[in-house]
Input
Amino acid sequence: MLSAALQGERLRLRDFLPSDRDAYLAARRGAAFGRHARPEQRTEDFSAGLLARFLEQQRQTPRRDWQLAVVRAADGALIGSVGLRGAAGGEAEFGIELDEAVWRRGYAAEAAALMLAFGRERLGCRRFHARCVPGNVAMLALAMRLGFEMQPLRDGGRLELLLAA
Output
């Protein structure tokens, strides 16, 4: 378990709770949200399975996967998730997803900065990888602002992005 939430100016990152189910499923429900995902990844069952996996990850020893709830500090609303997966040997895979209702407000940049700082300072990560479909312009722009560099296309048509200290 995360001993204390990660606090930003407008956001808080915390471990997921079983009671987050409805809010998490709602955050992943938007039509625009899933346009870069395969159809089977946009179902309610898939989203519920992800949440179950996030809850299970909290019991890992040592914990290598840190998918955290993104919560707006002002009203406590869960608006998405951000995470580092496979954190070991100074590396981790980064990912973020936000409810499309809160896009273009700077929340992704704030949540990403909090998560990457956590990875550097608490997990000792020096390299972060992220994967992105080429058409996801918002994710690519965020990754570039964060300092990620694009790598050649990998199998499956996803760009490999790399951020190294």
